[in-house]
Design brief:
Blueprint (H helix, E strand, L loop, with lengths): L3 H11 L5 E4 L2 H8 L7 E5 L3 E5 L6 H5 L4 E4 L4 H12 L3 E4 L6 H11 L3 E4 L3 H7 L3 H22 L8 H14 L4 E2 L4 E4 L19 E7 L1 E3 L2 E2 L2 E7 L4 H20 L6 H14 L11 E3 L6 E5 L12 E4 L2 E4 L3 E4 L2 E5 L4 E3 L9 E2 L1
Parallel strand pairs: 1-5, 3-4, 5-6, 12-20
Antiparallel strand pairs: 1-2, 2-3, 7-10, 8-9, 9-12, 10-11, 13-14, 15-18, 16-17, 18-19
Helix pairs in contact: 4-5, 7-8, 9-10
Length: 357
C-alpha cells in the first residue's frame, strides 16, 4: 500500500528546487517510515525512498519501514548518502536546517560535493501540522489515559504527602494503563509553588488550604497528551475561588470560539483579553497553547506571535493561567483538534473547582 505521507511529501518536494530530501530528525524519520530505531537517516526523491541505518537494525528496519529501500551504511553515513545521490542522479539536496549543526553541515557539504545543499524550510513539519485519522485516534487514546490518571490521582492527593509522591503515582498509573512514559517531566506544584508555571514536582509537602497544580501527559504509541488541572486541598479562600473562576471562564470562552481560519494570535487573544479585563494580564506570561502530537511542543502556537492559520486536523492545547507570586497559581488545560466547523475536545476531566479534604 502506498505510503500516503511520502506521497504528500513528494508533492511538496515537487514544488521546491530540491531533487531529494535528507531527513535527519529522529521524529520526522519515525513519522515517515514507522522505524523506531535510534539511528538512521531517510533519503527521498520523486521516485526513490531509502532508510539508511546500521547493522543493529538489520532485522527491525525492513519490518517497520515497509516500502523503503533499506540500506546498511558503514562508519560514514554521509558517504552512503553521496553514493545513493549519484546513483539516483540527484544534484540538489534539501537538508533539515533545524536539526543539522554547523559542524554536521560542513561535513555533509564536503562529503556530497558538488551536490548543491538547500534548506528544507521544515517540509516534514508542515506535513505533521495536519494529523490524519490514525494520529487523531491515538491522541484521543492518550488523552483518555490522562483523564483516567486524573480520576485516580484525586483519591491519592492529601495533606502530608510530597509533590514527588504525587508525580510518581501519576507515572506508575499511566504506565500500568499502557503508556510508554510520561509525555514530559510531570509538574506537581503546591501552595506558593503553584505560581511557578513549570514547577516540576519537588520534595515540598502538600499542606492545607492551598492549590495543587497538576500538569502531565501520557506518551502512548508514539504520541503525547497534555493536561493541566488545579485543585484545592483543604478550604479555598475567596482569592483561590476568584482566580480559578477567571481562568475557567477564559479557557471555556476559547473552547467555545476557536474556529478554523483564525490565526494563532487571534486564538491567544480569546483567553488573554478576558484575563486582562479582570486585571490579571501581567500574571499570564505564556501563550494560550501549543501544538502537540509526536512531540509535546509542536506547531502551531496559540500565542501573541502565532501567525499560523488554524486548519482542520491541527491539534493544540488550550491552557490559560494566572500565577500570583507568593500566593499560588491556576492553569486549566485541554487538548483539542480543529475541525471543519470548530473544535473537538480530547480531554474530558472535570473543570469545576475540586476541593479535597
Amino acid at each position: 500500500m502506498p505510503n500516503s505521507r511520502v506521497t504528500r511529501l513528494r508533492e511538496l518536494l515537487s514544488q521546491s528546487e530540491g531533487k531529494a530530501l535528507l531527513v535527519t530528525n529522529a521524529v520526522n524519520r519515525h513519522y515517515l517510515t514507522g522505524f523506531t530505531g535510534s539511528s538512521g537517516v531517510v533519503l527521498i526523491t520523486k521516485d526513490k525512498a531509502a532508510l539508511l541505518t546500521d547493522f543493529r537494525y538489520r532485522e527491525q528496519a525492513p519490518k517497520q519501514a515497509q516500502g523503503f529501500q533499506i540500506v546498511e551504511h558503514g562508519s560514514d553515513v554521509n558517504a552512503t548518502v553521496a553514493e545513493l545521490l549519484k546513483q539516483w542522479g540527484a544534484d540538489v539536496l534539501l537538508f533539515e536546517e533545524r536539526d543539522v549543526t554547523f559542524a554536521a553541515y560542513r561535513a555533509l557539504e564536503q562529503a556530497l560535493s558538488p551536490v548543491k545543499l538547500l534548506t528544507s524550510e521544515g517540509i516534514v513539519e508542515k506535513l505533521r501540522l495536519i494529523k490524519d485519522e490514525s494520529e487523531i485516534a491515538i491522541i484521543q487514546e492518550a488523552a483518555d489515559l490522562a483523564d483516567r490518571a486524573f480520576d485516580h490521582i484525586l483519591g491519592f492527593i492529601k495533606p502530608g504527602i510530597s509533590e514527588k509522591a504525587v508525580a510518581l503515582e501519576l507515572e506508575v498509573f499511566m504506565r500500568s494503563q499502557g503508556a510508554t512514559s510520561s509525555s514530559f517531566e510531570t509538574i506537581v506544584a503546591s501552595g506558593e509553588r503553584s505560581a511557578l508555571p513549570h514547577g516540576i514536582a519537588s520534595d515540598r509537602i502538600i499542606g492545607r488550604d492551598e492549590f495543587v497544580k497538576l500538569d502531565y501527559g501520557a506518551y502512548y504509541k508514539g504520541y503525547c497528551s497534555d493536561i493541566t488541572r488545579t485543585v484545592v486541598v483543604g478550604k479555598p479562600s475567596d482569592k483561590h475561588r476568584e482566580i480559578y473562576e477567571i481562568v475557567k471562564e477564559a479557557q471555556q470562552y476559547a473552547l467555545d470560539h476557536l474556529v478554523p481560519g483564525m490565526t494563532g494570535k487571534e486564538g491567544d487573544a480569546l483567553t488573554r483579553d478576558i484575563i486582562t479585563r479582570y486585571g490579571y494580564g501581567e500574571y499570564f506570561g505564556h501563550g494560550t497553547g501549543h501544538g502537540l502530537g509526536m512531540e509535546i511542543h509542536e506547531a502551531p502556537r496559540l500565542s501573541v506571535s502565532g501567525d499560523t492559520v488554524l486548519a482542520p486536523g491541527m491539534t493544540v492545547t488550550v491552557e490559560p493561567g494566572i500565577y500570583l507570586p507568593g500566593f499560588g497559581g491556576v492553569r486549566i488545560e485541554d487538548d483539542i483538534v480543529i475541525t471543519d466547523k470548530g473544535i473537538r475536545i480530547f480531554t474530558k476531566s472535570p473543570k469545576h473547582l475540586i476541593v479535597l479534604d
